Amino acid sequence: MLIEYKNATITQSDGKTVLQGVDLHVDAGEFVYIIGRVGSGKSSLLKTLYCELDIDEADEATVLGTDLMKIRRKHIPALRRQMGIIFQDFQLLADRTVYKNLRFVLKATGWKKAEDIDNRIIQVLTDVDMLDRRDRMPHELSGGEQQRIAIARALLNSPKLIIADEPTANLDAETALGIMQLLRQIAQTGTAVIMSTHNVSLLQQYPGIVYRCCDGQMSETTKNYRLDANISDC
Q1: How many CA atoms lie within 13 A of 63 on its CB side?
Q2: How far apart are CA 70 and CA 51, in angstroms?
Q3: How far apart are CA 60 and CA 78, in angstroms?
Q4: pLDDT beyond 80 at 233
Q5: Rounded to whole angstroms, how far apart are CA atoms 29 and 192?
């Protein structure tokens, strides 16, 4: 078990409660969707997983063996090093090359030996088919290429869990499918992937466990979710 939420209440930084009674369970290698309309609480839920947002209250809130209701601020970086986080706006450092973006992360997370750093960067760039872009600046890359680099960055420390917040939102349909294929391949290696999306058409080609945010509640809809039930009816 990598994530276990029971009866959690999630409140935004402005004090507005966005989700109540949240139950969420994620095991190794699972591919989990969080779906719902914009503003339904998807991103807020994901932010609680890496302690960007506190959980207001819960019967249980555990991520990677850590009790989020008791975690101290000084221990949050260690928790985050066990996960990879992918954002829809990529968040690459614009003033340095792809290689230096990845090296920055490794050095910031304790890697020391230049040879080890170089070998790991080569490995993750090969995994996302971006090795030939290692010396490019972010602005020289397409949106899909930047997202692949963001995925490579998330993989650097061999995470047990990938958290992806609308990773295909700013991409065209063909590029989005390529990103989905890559994320599914990652899940098949045993790393759990939990991603938010409002694009329910992805579920048809890449089925997984589905949780739906609607009217301040979140429920698992994997078995009874119908693709033609548009989330706009929420």
Answers
A1: 29
A2: 11
A3: 20
A4: no
A5: 4
Q: State the pLDDT confidence band at 170, using cuts at 50, 70 and 90.
A: confident
Domains in the chain, start-ordered, CATH in brackets?
Answer: 1-79+194-226 (3.40.50.300)
Q: How far apart are CA 86 and CA 195, in angstroms?
A: 9
Chain centre to alpha carbon of residue 208 = 15
Q: Cβ atoms within 10 A of the Cβ of 59, count?
A: 11
Which of 179, 230, 227, 170 lies closest to 204, judged by CA?
A: 227
Residue type at position 164: A
- Whole-model pTM: value is 0.91
CA nearest to 183, candidates 211, 161, 204? 161
Bridge-partner residues for 87, per DSSP? 165
Task: List own/partner pairs for 217-226 with CB under 8 A and 24 or more apart.
Answer: 217/19, 217/20, 217/21, 218/19, 218/21, 218/22, 218/23, 218/24, 218/34, 218/36, 218/41, 218/45, 220/23
